[in-house]
């Protein structure tokens, strides 16, 4: 029943169903003044004819494209892949298309992605910015386009944002290692992440201080490559560190793999806890204790904030901090013979 040539129009569907163009339009939008039976019949015929809604025409009438952009880091990082997947599900449920753009955590690429989103006339942007002084954010602010920060907080009340409670997550991670016998602990991050790195360490450090861990037994490092990471781990091993808090699960798994591949047997001398609870969303062969940060809730909340900002630009900025919790998978236990 599909039209042989050209795009199927509302007029074509009206002719095929014997109703007016206005009735077809309202039926395809599930308007309540059209009976359920009529809606279903018109929608069935539209599908059979191969009708696809013309969003360009709709946007010209409404001034909105029903499209939002998500600008994140690399999709090779499962954290971003999971978050984008959850955001797309929620966006589609609400009738929005999603444009996914990757900044690779590079400021120059990030501003190009913002320019691309602006050129496509999206209704709003969700973004995990690279830095406190990101040129991309300056461009978004000056453009007037609604946007929401994801997993990043720039400390101020100028932008909408959704973050997890990084400080509490760090505290829970430190407390968990301490409760399992560790008295010499370290946090490691492969690079500095806006706001989160500092807050997670502050919480981690406070948990150690509350447990009366000597300050000399509380460590932090941001090594930049595998050689530096292994060097740092060897130094900590020599200093008696046994409990490791990794900035995120992906880095925790990388740490464990590096230790196993080093051939030094160090993997037996460290207990590791991560952050994000990626195992709650995808399977991975190595279990790991982690901090659950509610990615599903973050996705839904971010889109809610963005929709509010799109429809009510004068609303005051909102900062939403989501609670975190601990997930134990027994990679925290102090079972090391080398520990005094």
Q: Could you list some keywords that capture this structure?
A:
434 Repressor (Amino-terminal Domain), Rossmann fold, 12 helices
State the CATH architecture of the largest domain. 3-Layer(aba) Sandwich
Low-pLDDT runs: 336-340
Question: Would you report the number of β strands?
Answer: 12
**Radius of gyration, CA atoms, in whole angstroms:** 25 Å
Strand content: 5-15%
**Mean pLDDT, all residues:** 89
CATH fold label of the largest domain: Rossmann fold
Query: Which CATH C-level class of the largest domain is it?
Result: Alpha Beta
SSE sequence, one letter per element = HHHHEHEHEHEEHEHEHEHEEHEE
CATH superfamily of the largest domain: Response regulator
Question: Summary?
Answer:
With 340 residues, this protein is of the alpha/beta class. The chain has helices at residues 10-17, 21-28, 36-49, 55-62, 78-93, 107-119, 135-143, 166-179, 196-210, 226-239, 249-262, 295-311; strands at residues 67-72, 97-102, 124-127, 147-150, 160-164, 185-188, 218-221, 243-246, 271-273, 290-292, 319-322, 325-327. The chain has 3 domains: 10-53, 434 Repressor (Amino-terminal Domain); 63-164 and 294-322, Response regulator (Rossmann fold), CATH 3.40.50; 166-292, Rossmann fold.
Layout of strands and helices, then pairs:
Elements: H1 10-17, H2 21-28, H3 36-49, H4 55-62, E1 67-72, H5 78-93, E2 97-102, H6 107-119, E3 124-127, H7 135-143, E4 147-150, E5 160-164, H8 166-179, E6 185-188, H9 196-210, E7 218-221, H10 226-239, E8 243-246, H11 249-262, E9 271-273, E10 290-292, H12 295-311, E11 319-322, E12 325-327
